[in-house]
Amino acid sequence: MFEPILEAIRRHDRIVLHRHVNPDGDALGSQIGLKHILRENFPHKQVRAVGDGAGRYAFMDDSAMDDVPDAFYEGALAIILDTSAAHLISDGRYALAAATARLDHHIFCGQIAQAEATDTGYESCCGLVADFARTCGLRVPPLAAKSLFTGMVTDSGRFRYDATSARTFELAAFLMQTPFDLEEIYANLYASDYEQVRLRAQYALKIRFAQNGVAYIYTTLEEARALGVDAFTLSRGMVNVMADIRGVDVWVNFTETERGVLCELRSSRRNINPIAVRYGGGGHAKASGATLPGREAAMRMLRDLEEMGEDA
């Protein structure tokens, strides 16, 4: 699976790493991790990372993106990480590259790159990149190991989600052979300031229960503006306020923004991905997302989630 990717890397002296917009720990971790693996093992190559800002993951070392001119793409290889669809790629200039490759663990929605290594069996794209390094015999420097481990932790829910497997722990052990500060990772990921605790409490009071084990939160544009918090924090950051509630199998967080309603869908046991795909989104079987044009479409999605529960 990895040989075509490795061969493409060997053939190109300029490499640009892309990932999805609004990056999470896995997107940034795979990007930063692969960047430093390539620099360690191919020091003569020019390796750059591009995309929008790191947001709450700006604590990750080397999370600031590189300034890459269009001319850099001439004759270059663009590697797309942790992205299931072309419209989700941050920085569309990957299309300017001479060659493209992709490493991804999302449900396959269609080919994006010329060389692809996609496998939903990995709990994270960081796990996939770690296995790429291990399988290909590439050295993993400390910053790469730390970044990849961070992404594995975030996308596996601290190794709780059912995508976690024996291989997950094998790869985590492989990364931990290179020393890095675990306490620093967990402190940055899970320590909360008072305002975050207060926000989560407010969102707990917003939870509503639909039929057939479905819970939801709906935040209007006016409410979002009044909270004074970025949309990513309100949508993806607050969705799991509804997790672990007895009797709730599916939960969805709707957040109105200027460009539409952000929908974060989660499930403890059902495959909600087809519904996300139906509304133009995607992701994983139990964690997906989509952006809808308005509240009416969001309520249709909610009804679809309720109806799915009727067959459970």
Could you characterize what this model shows?
With 312 residues, the chain is an alpha/beta fold. The chain has helices spanning 3-11, 25-41, 125-136, 142-155, 166-176, 182-190, 194-205, 221-227, 231-235, 273-278, 295-310, and strands at 14-19, 46-49, 77-81, 99-104, 115-118, 208-209, 214-219, 250-257, 260-267, 282-283, 287-292. The protein has a six-stranded mixed beta sheet. The protein has a five-stranded parallel beta sheet with strand order 2-1-3-4-5. The longest helix is centred in the N-terminal third of the chain and has 17 residues, at 25-41. The radius of gyration is 19 Å and the shape is globular. The relative contact order is 0.11. The model has no long low-confidence stretch (mean pLDDT 95). GO terms for molecular function: nucleic acid binding. This is Bifunctional oligoribonuclease/PAP phosphatase NrnA.
Comma- or semicolon-separated keywords:
312 residues; alpha/beta; six-stranded mixed β-sheet; globular; Bifunctional oligoribonuclease/PAP phosphatase NrnA; nucleic acid binding
Relative helix content: 25-40%
Which range does the strand content fall in?
Answer: 15-25%
Please summarize the sheet with the most strands.
Answer: 6 strands, mixed
Number of helices: 11
Query: How many distinct beta strands?
Result: 11
Order of helices and strands: HEHEEEEHHHHHEEHHEEHEEH
Coarse shape: globular
Q: Helix/strand/pairing class, anyone?
A: alpha/beta
In terms of per-residue confidence, which ranges show pLDDT below 50 for 5 or more consecutive residues? none
Query: What is the CA–CA distance across the termini?
Result: 36 Å
Domain DDH: 14-134
Protein name: Bifunctional oligoribonuclease/PAP phosphatase NrnA
Organism: Candidatus Onthenecus intestinigallinarum
Domain DHHA1: 236-307
